[in-house]
Design goal:
Blueprint (H helix, E strand, L loop, with lengths): L16 H5 L7 E2 L3 H10 L3 E6 L4 H11 L2 H10 L1 E6 L4 H14 L8 E5 L5 E5 L13 H13 L1 H21 L10 H14 L16 H14 L2 H16 L13 E2 L7 E2 L2 E2 H18 L2 H17 L10 E2 L2 E2 L2 E2 L7 H8 L3 H7 L20 H7 L4 H19 L7 E2 L2 E2 H18 L2 H17 L7 E5 L2 E5 L2 H16 L4 H17 L32 H16 L2 H20 L5 H11 L4 E7 L6 H10 L6 E6 L3 H6 L14 E6 L2 E2 L6 H10 L1
Parallel strand pairs: 1-3, 2-3, 16-17
Antiparallel strand pairs: 2-4, 4-5, 6-7, 8-9, 9-12, 10-11, 13-14, 14-15, 16-18, 18-19
C-alpha cells in the first residue's frame, strides 16, 4: 500500500535535503524566488523567512512541532508569504539576515533562523526556534502571528515598522565598506596572540566556556607562529587543545572524525552532527601538528579523519558530501552511544578494561547511555596497569574494531549528500596536503578525483556553481566557493598533480578579481547578480568556516610565490588593508586573515622550484626533505622540460631548468633566488637552515 502525504508544497521540486524535509508541511512554502517576492508585493503581505540546514537538531524539532501543525500552517499561510532557505545552498542570504537578527536580538541568534520581512525584503523582526505556543521562555508562533497581524492591519504601525526596517538596512549599508586605508603590521599579530591567550582554557584547551567549537584554523595560525617565533605558549596551547579534543566525546573513537561542537567545556558531550568542513580543517590541523612535533598520535588522528571522509563522505564519482545528522531512530546520538550491557555482551572478559579506558559506566554520561571518551593518556594508563604502550594500543584497536562492526549494523543518521563547492575545496586541500606529507597515494588520488568532479560538474566554463545534487548544479558560487576551491587546487598543483590545477586556480582567481573585488579593496561575498539581495557586502570574520577573504588573501600570497607575479601580492594587500579594522576590533574572530598576514609579511618564505631531469633523479629524496621539515609558508613548483603549459603559467620557473642535465633545486624568496643546487648533500644542508 503506497503512502500518500496529505500535503505537498512547492519545495517538492527542490534538490536540497533540508527543503525536501519541509515539502510535505501544510505550510505553503516557497523557495527563495521571484514568484514569492512578486506574490508578497501583489498581496501586500509580510514575508516569513525561515532558514536552516538538514542536519540541524532544532530545525528538526521546529519542523515536527510547528510546521507540521495544521492550525499553525493556516495562521502562517493567512498572514505571510512563507519562504524556506537552506543556509548551506545560499550562504549570502543566511549571513545577511543572520547579521540583522544578531543586531535585533542583541547577539543570541542561531538556527533555525526565522525573520519577518516587508514585501521589499527589509527585516523587522527575528527569532530562532519558535514552538506553536509560548513555552520555556520561547515566543510562540500563535503570539507572533497575532502581533504581526495587528501591526500590518494598522496603517500607522505598519508605516513605522517599514520606516524602522529601512533605517536598520541603511545603518548596515554604511558599516560594510569593502575598502581600507592602512596595511596591518606584525604588531597586529602580536596583539591577537595575547588576546587569544587571555581567552584560552588552560585545562581543556580551546577558548574558555561552553559550548566549545573546534577551531582548527586558529590552532594552525598558532602553530605557524610557534614555528616562526619560538613562542612556547602557542605550542602548549595547540598541543593541549588537540590532545583534549582527541580524548573527548567530540571525537568518534570508533569511526574517526569530529562532531560539530561540544555542549560542555571539557569536550565530552558533543552535538553529534559531523560536518565535512570541520573534518577537512581538523585533518590539516593534526597534520601540521605532526609535521612540527613529529608526534605519531597527530598523524594517526589526521589519517583517521581522512579515512572517515573516504569511507562515509565521498561520492562514488569523487565529490564530498556535506554532513551527517546528529539524530537516528528519533534520538540524538543514538548511533554513537552505548549501554554498559551492550559493551559487556560484545567484549566479554575484555569489557572492564575497555570501560575503564573509555570512561564507560553502568549509569552512563548521556541520557543513560555512554559517550566513549578517554579519561587519561595512553602513557598514564599503561604505567598504571604495568602494560607496554604498544600492547595497549593494539589491544584497544582490536576492541574498538569489534564495537565498530557492531555499530555498522545500527540505523545510520541521515546523510546530507549535497556537494558544496567551498567545502569540497577544503577537503581537496586536506587530501592533497596529507597525500604529500604522509606519502599516501590514496589521499592524492582522492584530492585529484574531487577536483576532477568539481571541474566537470560545478564549473560551467565561465562560472563556478555552489551546489550539486542529483545531477543538478545550481546557485552562483560565492567568494567562499571560489576561494576554498583555489586553496585546494594550489595544493594539488604543489603535490605534482599537474599544471592543469594551477591553470584552473588562476582562471578562478581572475573571475574573483573581475566580478567580486571592490576596486581598491577586498572581495564581496557575491557577484552582485541577485537582484533580491538588499545589500552586497564584504565579510571578514571567521565563522564555522574560515572567512572567504582570509582564505583568498592566503591564496593570493601563494600564487605570488609560485608565479613570481606582483599583482597577486597587491590584491592580497588590498584585502589585508580592509581587514585591519577587524583585526583591531576583535582579532580572535579574524584568525584566517592573521594567518594570511603572517605569510604576507614573511619575506623569507621559500619557493622551491624543482627542475627535474629526464630521469627524474633526486625526486624521492627532495620529496622526503619537503615532508621531513615543517616549513609552513613554502610554495613548491615541480618543473619538467616537457611541460610547455607550466612555462607560460609560472614566469618564475621559466629559465630555471636542470643544470648540466642534473635535477636542480632552486630556492627563491620573493623573486630572489639562491645558487642552484644539484648535489644532495648541499640540498640537505639548505633544508636544515630553513
Amino acid at each position: 500500500m503506497s503512502h500518500h502525504p496529505l500535503y505537498t508544497n512547492r519545495l517538492v521540486h527542490e534538490k536540497s535535503p533540508y527543503l525536501l524535509q519541509h515539502a510535505h508541511n501544510p505550510v505553503d512554502w516557497y523557495p527563495w524566488s521571484d514568484e514569492a517576492f512578486r506574490k508578497a508585493r501583489e498581496l501586500n503581505k509580510p514575508i516569513f523567512l525561515s532558514i536552516g540546514y538538514a542536519t540541524c537538531h532544532w530545525c528538526h524539532v521546529m519542523e515536527q512541532e510547528t510546521f507540521q501543525s495544521l492550525e499553525i500552517a493556516e495562521l502562517l499561510n493567512e498572514t505571510f508569504i512563507n519562504i524556506k532557505v537552506d543556509r548551506e545552498e545560499k550562504p549570502e542570504i543566511d549571513s545577511l539576515y543572520m547579521e540583522f537578527a544578531q543586531a535585533m536580538m542583541s547577539g543570541g541568534a542561531g538556527w533555525p533562523l526565522n525573520v519577518i520581512l516587508t514585501p521589499e525584503l527589509m527585516p523587522f523582526f527575528a527569532a530562532t526556534y519558535l514552538p506553536p505556543d509560548a513555552s520555556r521562555g520561547f515566543l510562540g508562533v500563535k503570539q507572533l502571528v497575532l502581533r504581526i497581524s495587528q501591526i500590518w492591519a494598522d496603517p500607522e504601525e505598519r508605516g513605522n515598522v517599514i520606516a524602522q526596517a529601512g533605517k536598520i538596512v541603511d545603518i548596515f549599508a554604511t558599516h560594510s565598506s569593502p575598502e581600507g586605508d592602512e596595511a596591518p603590521t606584525k604588531e597586529h599579530i602580536g596583539h591577537a596572540l595575547e588576546l587569544i591567550f587571555k581567552a584560552a582554557d588552560p585545562l581543556y584547551g580551546g577558548m574558555h566556556g561552553s559550548p566549545k567549537f573546534p577551531q582548527g584554523f586558529q590552532a594552525i595560525f598558532l602553530l605557524r607562529l610557534a614555528k616562526s617565533t619560538g613562542d612556547s605558549r602557542a605550542l602548549f596551547y595547540v598541543e593541549k587543545t588537540l590532545e583534549m579534543m582527541r580524548r573527548g566525546g567530540i571525537y568518534d573513537h570508533l569511526g574517526g572524525g569530529f562532531s560539530r561542537y561540544s555542549v560542555d567545556e571539557g569536550w565530552l558531550v558533543p552535538h553529534f552532527e559531523k560536518m565535512i568542513y570541520d573534518n577537512a580543517i581538523l585533518a590539516v590541523t593534526y597534520l601540521e601538528a605532526f609535521q612540527y612535533t613529529k608526534e605519531a598520535r597527530y598523524q594517526e588522528t589526521s589519517r583517521e579523519i581522512l579515512d572517515y571522509i573516504l569511507r562515509e563522505m565521498t561520492a562514488p564519482e569523487g565529490g564530498f558530501y556535506s554532513a551527517e545528522d546528529a539524530d537516528s531512530e528519533g534520538h540524538e546520538g543514538r548511533f554513537y552511544t552505548w549501554t554498559w550491557d551492550e559493551i559487556h555482551a560484545l567484549l566479554k572478559e575484555d569489557a572492564p578494561f575497555f570501560c575503564e579506558f573509555y570512561g564507560v559506566s553502568p549509569h552512563g554520561n548521556f541520557e543513560g547511555r555512554n559517550i566513549l571518551h578517554q579519561t587519561i593518556s595512553l602513557e598514564e594508563f599503561s604505567t598504571f596497569h604495568k602494560l607496554d604502550v604498544k600492547v595497549l594500543v593494539a589491544t584497544l584497536a582490536e576492541l574498538r574494531k569489534v564495537l565498530f562492526e557492531a555499530r555498522e549494523k545500527r540505523v545510520r543518521p541521515l546523510k546530507d549528500d549535497k556537494i558544496i563547492s567551498a567545502w569540497n575545496g577544503l577537503a581537496i586541500y586536506a587530501f592533497a596536503e596529507a597525500g604529500k606529507h604522509f606519502g599516501d597515494a590514496r589521499y592524492l588520488e582522492a584530492a585529484a578525483k574531487g577536483a576532477r568532479f568539481l571541474k566537470e560538474n560545478l564549473w560551467k566554463g565561465e562560472a563556478l556553481y555552489r551546489r550539486y545534487r542529483d545531477k543538478e548544479a545550481k546557485f552562483d558560487g560565492c567568494l567562499d566557493d571560489y576561494a576554498c576551491v583555489i586553496h585546494g587546487l594550489i595544493s594539488l598543483f604543489e603535490a605534482d598533480q599537474g599544471a592543469e590545477w594551477l591553470e584552473f586556480a588562476l582562471v578562478l582567481a581572475n573571475i574573483l578579481k573581475s566580478e567580486f573585488k571592490a576596486p581598491e579593496g577586498a572581495f564581496y561575498l557575491t557577484n552582485g547578480k541577485d537582484p533580491h539581495l538588499i545589500l552586497r557586502r564584504a565579510e571578514f570574520y571567521d565563522g564555522a568556516e574560515p572567512s572567504g577573504n582570509g582564505v583568498h588573501a592566503e591564496n593570493l600570497v601563494r600564487l605570488a610565490q609560485i608565479t613570481g607575479l606582483e599583482e597577486y601580492l597587491q590584491q592580497a594587500a588590498d584585502i589585508l588593508r580592509t581587514a585591519r579594522q577587524h583585526m583591531e576590533l576583535y582579532p580572535p574572530g579574524v584568525c584566517y586573515h592573521l594567518m594570511a598576514l603572517h605569510r604576507y609579511l614573511d619575506q623569507e618564505a621559500p619557493t622551491f622550484v624543482i627542475a627535474l631531469n629526464d630521469k627524474e633523479e633526486l625526486k624521492q629524496e627532495i620529496t622526503e626533505l619537503l615532508r621531513g621539515h615543517f616549513i609552513p609558508h613554502k610554495a613548491v613548483v615541480w618543473r619538467r622540460a616537457s611541460d610547455e603549459e607550466l612555462r607560460d603559467l609560472v614566469p618564475l620557473a621559466r629559465d630555471k631548468g636542470p643544470v648540466d642535465g642534473k635535477t636542480t633545486l632552486y630556492i627563491c624568496h620573493r623573486n630572489r633566488c639562491q645558487e642552484p643546487l644539484t648535489d644532495i648533500a648541499k640540498i640537505q644542508e639548505a633544508f636544515a637552515k630553513l
